[in-house]
Amino acid sequence: MKNEKAVVVFSGGQDSTTCLFWAKERFAEVIAVTFDYGQRHRLELECAADIARDLQVPHHILDMSLLNQLAPNALTRSDIEITEKEGQPPSTFVEGRNLLFLSFAAVLAKQYDARHIVTGVCETDFSGYPDCRDVFIKSLNVTLNLSMDTNFVIHTPLMWLDKAETWELADELGAFEYVRERTLTCYNGVKGDGCGECPACKLRQNGLQTYLARKEEK
Ligand SMILES: [Zn+2]
């Protein structure tokens, strides 16, 4: 696949930045696409732009503010509290987000004549997001190919990894320090190791500590 192009769905967070490094190693040309849907923290978009610049990857920021018109949620609206209730998707869930993002990424990929689409979705830490599931991605892949009469391949390098293994992958790609320091995962908009308090930081920290402990054992 060294002579082929890939579009990476890219938010500037740990997962999609790891995917960007992964794609850069595999494809001749990589294009990053970020969706602006009125994120709580504009810093997220800046962070994504900085990383794309560092990695010398063309970067598109597409306006998806309509998503917030359809379904206001805790990721976009500061007056909605971030909560996680047993048996329910967390309040950060945006219905149909991956469906929409991947569909728009495919339209962009077609413009670039890129056959590959890369996304950091993951079923392992499945927290009630139905459109992160492998079966959904495979189904959408078929649908996109039928809709555009093309042969897209959607890659999900993180699909079966836990958070510790995602750190391991970043390390294997020589990007551990970069991902640790330069990405933004925190719901409170704190780069790198984050605020340490929000659900996203706790998940990221747990994974990091587990990975570092595993590495120590070896
Ligand atoms: Zn945080």
Automatic annotation (TrEMBL):
Gene Ontology molecular functions: ATP binding; ligase activity, forming carbon-nitrogen bonds; zinc ion binding
GO BP terms in the entry: tRNA queuosine(34) biosynthetic process
UniProt entry keywords in alphabetical sequence: ATP-binding, Ligase, Metal-binding, Nucleotide-binding, Queuosine biosynthesis, Zinc
Catalytic activity: 7-carboxy-7-carbaguanine + NH4(+) + 2 ATP = 7-cyano-7-carbaguanine + 2 AMP + 2 diphosphate + 2 H(+)
Positions bound to Zn(2+): 186, 195, 198, 201
Coiled coil: none
Domain of life: Bacteria
Keyword ATP-binding carried by entry: yes
InterPro entries to which the protein is assigned, alphabetical: QueC (IPR018317), Rossmann-like_a/b/a_fold (IPR014729)
Subunit details: Homodimer.
NCBIfam families noted in UniProt: 7-cyano-7-deazaguanine synthase QueC
Main function: Catalyzes the ATP-dependent conversion of 7-carboxy-7-deazaguanine (CDG) to 7-cyano-7-deazaguanine (preQ(0)).
Protein name (database record): 7-cyano-7-deazaguanine synthase
Organism per entry: Bacillus thermotolerans
